Amino acid sequence: MQQLLLDIAPPALPTLANFLPGRNVELLALLQRIVANQERERFIYIWGDPGCGKSHLLQAMTQAFSQKGLSPVHFSCKTDCDFGINEKIDCVLVDDVDLLDMPSQIKLFNLYNQIRDESNIFLIVSGQLAPAQLNLRQDLVTRLGWGLVYRAHELMDEEKTKTMKHHATNCGFDLPQEVCDYLLHHERRDLLSLIETIDALGRYSLANKRQITVPLLRELLQETS
């Protein structure tokens, strides 16, 4: 397939404002209270299936703290598990905790103890499973359940359609309803996969100078299968 790295508007950065909450209204309200310094609980664990918005929320919190002139630090356990912080940090965000190897689990366990004993730092962690179901050190599992535990629920189909169309608009193109319907009925349904397909479809449309339609989507999927 031809090169698709064309001049297309980048997607909007994840923020709390552009997160579509669906059944996650209470979780979103909690995070907004944290940013507004109106929440006393400092340990938050968010769990849910891939594509439910966990990474969006952690990246959005990183943005929100930075915009207030505070100092967040974000760790993705896919790439970075150092967990080194200093006294100037206001919020630590750890994404995909279920991917940690044993040495990194020990580091995160020590970080929990450091934050509990010595600071007012918020610690927000995400994973695919509830704490008790994680295949991690038992003492770390206990720490993960210390504070508030929230499940992030996947969006309903109508909400996914709204999110896909909104994302396409932010990228500079319109996404027809029939394309959304096709994706929801024939492709992977998690939001991350849907957004990745929409991004590729936008680039493919520009590369071929054709409108976005179901036949164009099928053509793209055939070439990338």
Structure in words:
This protein has 225 residues and is of the alpha/beta class. It is 46% helix and 11% strand. It has eight helices and five strands. The chain has a five-stranded parallel sheet, covered by helices on one side. The protein is elongated and about 60 Å long. Mean pLDDT is 90; it is low at 1-9.
Taking strands numbered 1, 2, ... along the chain, how are they ordered across the largest sheet?
A: 2-3-4-1-5
Major beta sheet summary: 5 strands, parallel
Helix/strand-derived category reads alpha/beta
Taking the alpha carbons of the first and last residues, their distance comes to 11 Å
- What are the segments in which pLDDT stays under 50 over at least 5 consecutive residues? 1-9
Work out the helicity level: 40-55%
Q: Rg from C-alpha positions?
A: 19 Å
The tally of helices reads 8
List the helices and strands and how they pair.
Elements: H1 25-35, E1 43-47, H2 54-67, E2 72-76, E3 91-95, H3 102-118, E4 122-127, H4 138-144, E5 148-151, H5 157-171, H6 177-186, H7 191-208, H8 214-224
Parallel strand pairs: 1-4, 1-5, 2-3, 3-4
